[in-house]
Design goal:
- The protein contains 13 helices and no strands.
- It is mostly helical.
- It has a domain of 109 residues.
Length: 244
């Protein structure tokens, strides 16, 4: 009998999401021998799967609804704030969402980037994000800045600031957001203003100087208002998911 038992394969080691699913059977939930998700992880999974469902309703050539962007940003915020507490389950869902995003016929990076950035080895994706902060397409440029705001604590000032301030100097759409995100990369507003006043754009120097004066007069919070509005929506989604 013991020989037969010795030849049997070990039971599958399931993570918490598989154990709670009716599709899998394996290890028993023994205290001290299982991964227990924090609430932030459960919320992340709920929002990430909701993104998957919402995104899958859009055609391969259609623009997904704004809700998909907000869900992705909410997940990015959670991942940046609680990544060290997460088990393997969020990484599995991130991969599923990347696969779903890649089914879109155009601008695959637009939809897959948030899920790639939130992975622990997402350094290459941050490099791609820096490049798109000054994208010639205003919609894609604004999306890159929204992603940058959601993970602003991870941004490299030396890589992000030149592109953001070039936007302040020479673009027509998203100028306010570029100034607001640039300011968020400094510890104090005074430090940011001192840097911005001394920085020289490659072109549109006069327009840049005029805009710096205008933005300083209006205040940094005014420039950051679009980001805070979006973040409040994302935080509401997070709060609602916590009570599902």
């Amino acid at each position: 009998m013991n020989e037969i038992v010795d030849r049997l394969p070990p039971p599958p080691m399931l993570h918490w999401d598989e154990r709670e699913s009716d599709r899998y059977f394996g290890q028993l939930p023994l205290s001290g021998f299982e991964d227990v998700p924090v609430m932030a992880e459960r919320v992340f999974i709920r929002l990430a799967r909701r993104w998957h469902d919402v995104f899958s309703t859009a055609g391969s050539h259609d623009t997904p609804p704004r809700l998909a962007d907000e869900l992705a940003l909410a997940c990015l915020m959670l991942a940046r704030e609680h990544d060290e507490e997460f088990t393997v389950v969020p990484r599995v869902q991130q991969e599923r969402n990347i696969v779903q995003a890649c089914r879109r016929a155009v601008f695959v990076w637009v939809d897959s980037m948030p899920w790639r950035i939130m992975q622990r080895d997402g350094g290459w994706e941050l490099e791609q994000l820096y490049g798109n902060l000054s994208h010639h397409n205003s919609a894609l440029r604004i999306w890159a800045m929204e992603l940058g705001w959601a993970c602003r604590s991870s941004l490299d000032k030396e890589k992000a600031l030149p592109r953001l301030l070039e936007n302040v100097a020479g673009t027509l759409i998203g100028v306010q957001m570029a100034w607001g995100l640039a300011g968020a990369l400094f510890d104090t507003t005074a430090e940011f203003h001192a840097f911005a006043e001394n920085w020289q754009p490659t072109d549109f120097a006069n327009q840049y100087a005029e805009r710096v004066i205008m933005f300083k007069k209006d205040g940094l919070l005014a420039a950051q208002a679009p980001f805070w509005k979006t973040e409040s929506t994302c935080r509401r989604l997070i709060a609602e998911a916590a009570f599902m």
